Amino acid sequence: MSNPIPENPDYIEYIESHKDEYEKDLFELLSIPSISSQTIHEADVARTAQWICDRLTSMNLDAQIVETTGHPAVFAQTKNPNPDLPTILFYGHYDVQPVDPLNLWKTPPFEPVINDGFIYARGASDDKGQMFTHILGPEAWYKTTGSMPVNVKYILEGDEESGGDAMDTFVRNNADLLACDCVVISDSQMFAPGRPAICYGLRGLAYVEVIYKGPNKDLHSGTFGGAITNPANALCKAIAGVHDDKYNVTFPGFYADVENIQLAEQERLAGLGIDETEFLASAGVTDSVGESGYTITERHWARPTFDVNGIISGYTGEGSKTVLPAVASAKMSCRLVPYQDPEKIVESIRQYFQDACPPGITMEFIVHSYTPAVIVDVNNPFVKAAAKTLEKAFGRSPEFTRDGGSIPIVSAFTEALNSPVLLLGWGQITDNIHSPNERFCLADFHRGIKASAILLKQLAGIEPKSAGKE
Ligand SMILES: [Zn+2]
């Protein structure tokens, strides 16, 4: 690994000489049990918001606590922003997951400690530790120059871990307040230790539930079997038809808007050197089937899918009971790729299961949620600036990755603000997020602070969206 080159001696020196204070301050933040899903911690959540608000105020930002439909969020922005500079919006969350089972923690979750180069505490990686780097980096600019090279905004929420959509609603209702040229989020992982990554693609999601209803009660399968349509048989047959023998999804129009994976992208993904055998082994399997003509990495990062998430019908208790069930239901979801319209896909799923519904069965269809996929053009100037930043801060150019999962808030930013989102995670998959003994690599905490400071400088030269408008 080459030695990272300091970009501006002043703020880099400032950052390097304040490591101890940064750790002390992070420990203070980590010691507040801001568990958003437990009402007993409501005051702790509010106290954390205030702690952050005070810190942002001390950086000469216009900071305030804002109401959402859930817990309070913290919003801050540059006072008197310069219209010639781009505006960077930092998003993060200060709430944390519950800590149970407590007995599996080696040290108390809200008494942070450093051990073997890792900070152990609930929220260390997800997301207080990562989020705090984007407060400290810009703060170093303010402390050394009295200003920042770009306009900044912050929206830091306290509901991410409680499953609500308070921030999604807030973003969509406050697009003007949050208007920016680019969004920066560090709430994810690097590709591997020492290998920073820029995640440029997330899959979307369409989550539905299909309920096939037959007779008005469970029936004797001897007396009625063969005469009455069995909803479980019917639902299984319909589900079995969703994939053809090449493992393509058969919902009408499912692939209509899907772009083929370009050669450059195929090469980029192959170049990551992901060991697919090891990947399968991590799930406890030795082989898998899927859409033909694609690698396993392409299949779960860049291709749309259909999966049954849960299926219930009839008798599932001990021993046997010969019934013909009255009802069969399945929860199912599709992961979506860029340009697929989730509403169209949901309608297509509904139509498919309606058409597959045989005589004697009626269907109930529930839409649980949907969100579109996100893709960021890797040639966009913000991505290029981020890549340079990571190279300087981590001493290695980043990997460009996609992720098979979905982050609804990223879709909200993309749709409501029409700005690219930079997903720059400083964590590792071994950080035990949501589990006992959550941790965050101490060196990556400090590299993340440097990266955040360097990022401001790298982004400063990019022309803002509003330029030329008047
Ligand atoms: Zn998180």
Description:
The chain has 470 residues and is an alpha+beta fold. It folds into two domains: 282 residues, Aminopeptidase (3-Layer(aba) Sandwich), CATH 3.40.630.10; 123 residues, Alpha-Beta Plaits. The chain is 34% helix and 21% strand. It has 15 helices and 18 strands. A six-stranded mixed sheet has the order 1-2-6-3-7-17, sandwiched between helices. A hairpin with a 6-residue loop joins strand 1 and strand 2. Helix 2 packs across helix 4 and helix 13 packs across helix 15. It is globular. The two termini are 47 Å apart. The model has no long low-confidence stretch (mean pLDDT 95). The site of zinc ion has 5 residues, from loops.
Secondary-structure map with pairings?
Elements: H1 9-17, H2 19-30, H3 42-57, E1 61-66, E2 73-78, E3 87-93, E4 113-115, E5 118-120, H4 128-145, E6 151-157, H5 166-173, H6 175-178, E7 182-185, E8 197-202, E9 204-213, E10 219-220, H7 221-224, H8 231-240, H9 263-271, H10 276-282, H11 296-301, E11 305-313, E12 323-324, E13 327-336, H12 342-355, E14 362-371, E15 374-375, H13 381-394, E16 399-403, H14 408-417, E17 421-423, E18 439-441, H15 442-460
Helix pairs in contact: 1-4, 1-15, 2-4, 4-15, 5-14, 13-15
The structure holds zinc ion.
